[in-house]
Design brief:
The structure is a single chain. By secondary structure, the protein is α+β, with helices and mostly antiparallel strands. The chain has a single domain, classed as Aminoglycoside 3'-phosphotransferase, Chain: A, domain 2 (Alpha-Beta Complex), CATH 3.90.1200. The protein has eight helices and ten strands. The strands form three sheets. Strands 1-2-3-5-4 form a five-stranded antiparallel beta sheet. This is Phosphotransferase.
Amino acid sequence: MDEVEVVVAHSERATLRVGDVFLKVDADQARIDVEAEVMALAPVPTPEVLWCRPPVLAIAAVPGTTLGRLGGPVTGSPAAWAAAGAAIRKLHDAPLPPRLGRAGRSVSELVAELDEECEALVTSGALPADLVARNRQVAEAALRPWIPAFTHGDLQIAHVFVHGDEVTGIIDWSEAGQGDALYDLATFTLGHEERLDDVLAGYGTDVDLDVIRGWWSVRSLLVVRWLMEHGFDAFAPGCEVDVLRSRM
């Protein structure tokens, strides 16, 4: 019998691995339902759903390896990163799923959430006021209307698997739905700005780089306190706080 590996665990959800099977346990049944639904709709390689009995979704492991992780070294050739960009573009060009996703919040909702979080970051002393103010300024570029696309919603590089120069699987779809395509691109390149040109070469269309940078600031500002409260280190080298510092 294989050992049980805890892949990630916090108060909202946990992912366990037993051999080639991943068990995703989620307190929110809606996220389980979304994940199973959108993986069936996505026109890119996704894990096979073995069974779904809320609060647990069982999926098969996908082949290949990730291109890296936030705060760690990255791997893969420029062609592999371009292949990831092409896969992301294929997803964004697909027919819209029926649900709004994490990247689909209205501009007014996002502004309200961001302003509240910026105030909390400063009041709590989690981050210096000038760092928060500068990144709130940079974030403004992302706070504009967008044309909805089929988005993953949490497209960290650790969620994209490749073998050679081919994308073999994209995992963790619980935040997927209609949203801003540039949010996905920003999430995928967060902390690895040097790979953005390779990703965009595969994506195959011009994008507004100020919006990408704006989403880097938005995402980082919104998650710092959550990460701290759930036992993750946003201050680790190359992680969210370093992303915010790079805008200074």
